[in-house]
Amino acid sequence: MNNFTIGIDVGGTKTAYGLFDTNKKLIFKNNVPNDTNLDRQTFFDEITGWNISFVWHY
Fold first, then answer.
1. Per DSSP, what are the bridge partners of residue 19?
2. Strand positions, DSSP E, the chain
3. Which residues pair with 20 in a beta bridge?
4. Are 32 and 49 in contact (CB under 8 A)?
5. How far is CA 19 from CA 1, 36, 49, in A?
6. How many H-runs (helices) and E-runs (strands) does the chain carry?
7. So what's the pLDDT on residue 13?
8. CB 17 within 8 A of CB 27
9. 26 CB-contact burial (10 Å; exposed 0-12 / middle 13-18 / buried 19+)
10. Does the pTM exceed 0.85?
11. Which of 3, 1, 51 is nearest to 27 (CA)?
């Protein structure tokens, strides 16, 4: 079984996320524009609801 880490970087205009292997090598990345009209809770709910099915490919 492989171990991976998901990193999330919340910025002012976009949120970037990536999948890293055990050697800290970035193997997948993506970014999503931020909706500045969302409150904190809704923004967090949106992030946790993202489809991260890409993880199953690794």
1. 6, 28
2. 5-10, 14-20, 26-33
3. 5, 26
4. no
5. 16, 25, 17
6. 1, 3
7. 94
8. no
9. exposed
10. no
11. 3
What span, in angstroms and rounded, lies between the C-alpha atoms of 14 and 49?
16
**pLDDT tens string 3-58:** 889 899 999 999 999 999 999 999 989 899 999 999 999 998 888 877 666 666 66
Q: Read off the amino acid at residue 23.
A: N
User: What pLDDT sits at residue 48?
Assistant: 80
CA atoms of 2 and 38, how far apart (whole Å)? 35
Residue 48: CB atoms within 10 A of its CB come to 8
pLDDT value for 51: 63
